[in-house]
Design a protein that fits this description.
With about 160 residues, the protein is of the alpha+beta class. It is built from four helices and nine strands. The strands form two sheets. Strands 3-4-5-6-7-9-8 form a seven-stranded mixed β-sheet. A two-stranded antiparallel ribbon has the order 1-2.
């Protein structure tokens, strides 16, 4: 079980009250990843997105928390059904910088993939993964490379076979 600074980390599906914390975490991750894309209205935009998505209950979203504080998030959006199989797009994977290296990302992904299975997904895809640490994490939990999109690595995992 992951701990951050000696505190246990719990994993659960997100709820509408998490929207502000989720938005802040996503913006912090963007600031670290590509500061040139962060702008003044970005937090408000992500807060609106998070509130909307949480209320629709269409996304499979999982948060990692220390107490009630959200320290990581991962989401899956539905894609078109192909060959009779529900597919999803993994997105918004963010782990607070202070929680990295403690196993939070690995446990977050396990919880997210389990939630995806429960929600009926058969395969999960992601496009343009550029962070080498993320690519290594995804490989370690069963994702396979399936090409490049000009920005980074495309990956997928079959949840039925996994």
């Amino acid at each position: 079980m992951a701990t951050v600074r000696g505190n246990p980390v719990s994993f659960r599906r997100w709820k509408p009250t998490d929207a502000e914390a989720v938005a802040r975490l996503i913006v912090l991750c963007w600031q670290e990843y590509d500061p040139s894309k962060v702008h003044g209205g970005m937090l408000n935009s992500y807060q609106a997105w998070a509130k909307f998505e949480a209320s629709r209950e269409v996304e499979t979203m999982v948060v990692a928390c220390v107490g009630e504080s959200v320290i990581a998030i991962a989401g899956i959006s539905p894609l078109k059904i192909r060959r009779g199989r529900q597919r999803g797009n993994l997105h918004s994977v963010c782990v607070d910088i202070h929680a990295r290296g403690a196993g939070v990302g690995t446990e977050l992904m396990a919880a997210t993939l389990q939630a995806a299975r429960e929600d009926g997904y058969a395969e999960i895809e992601m496009e343009g993964v550029t962070n080498p640490v993320a690519v290594q994490l995804y490989r370690s939990i069963g994702f396979q490379e399936c090409g490049h999109d000009g920005h980074g690595v495309n990956m997928r995992q079959d949840l039925i076979a996994a």
